[in-house]
Specification:
The chain has helices spanning 27-30, 66-75, 90-99, and strands spanning 2-3, 7-10, 13-20, 31-32, 37-38, 54-57, 82-85, 103-105, 120-124, 129-132. It is of the alpha/beta class. The chain has one domain (2-132): Glucose Oxidase, domain 1 (3-Layer(bba) Sandwich). It starts with a strand and ends in a 7-residue tail after the last strand.
């Protein structure tokens, strides 16, 4: 399955397993850049690693310093391969631009629930596409 008409925020291509959340992420308060995991026990992705994932979230919340956490994730080798948002925010856009992580906005009408946890995907921000592997899960 291919999702087209994604809006490019930061160009590039990347592959990985989908890590999806319906909850916003506060990169400064909820992410441990040194090990690449969600550190907030109240978040649905608590303990999950962002490393090499296609991180799918509605948007980020919190301080603009979160952009430097995204950059730190890249420096520590723990960054997601790409980020997909329902509505990208300045923190995610600037952090991913600094770290050279591809970012796209989903087109209107495509809900986060269509993107299955653990499924392999390829994001081509320049082409505005997300290609989903066949539906078997890859854990």
């Amino acid at each position: 399955m291919i999702i087209s008409n994604c809006h490019k925020i930061v160009g590039g291509t990347a592959e990985g397993k989908i890590l999806v959340t319906t909850k916003p992420i506060n990169f400064l308060a909820m992410v441990n850049a040194k090990n690449g995991t969600i550190s907030d026990p109240l978040h649905e992705l608590y303990g999950k690693s962002l490393k090499g994932s296609i991180l799918i979230l509605p948007y980020a919340i919190g301080s603009s310093v979160g952009a430097y956490v995204i950059y730190s994730l890249k420096e520590y080798g723990n960054a997601p391969s790409a980020v997909v948002c329902s509505r990208v925010d300045i923190t995610t856009a600037s952090g991913c631009a600094l770290a050279n992580i591809p970012v796209v906005n989903l087109p209107q009408g495509i809900g986060l629930s269509r993107l299955q946890q653990g499924r392999k995907a390829r994001v081509d921000a320049d082409a505005g596409t997300i290609t989903l592997a066949p539906s078997q899960r890859v854990d």
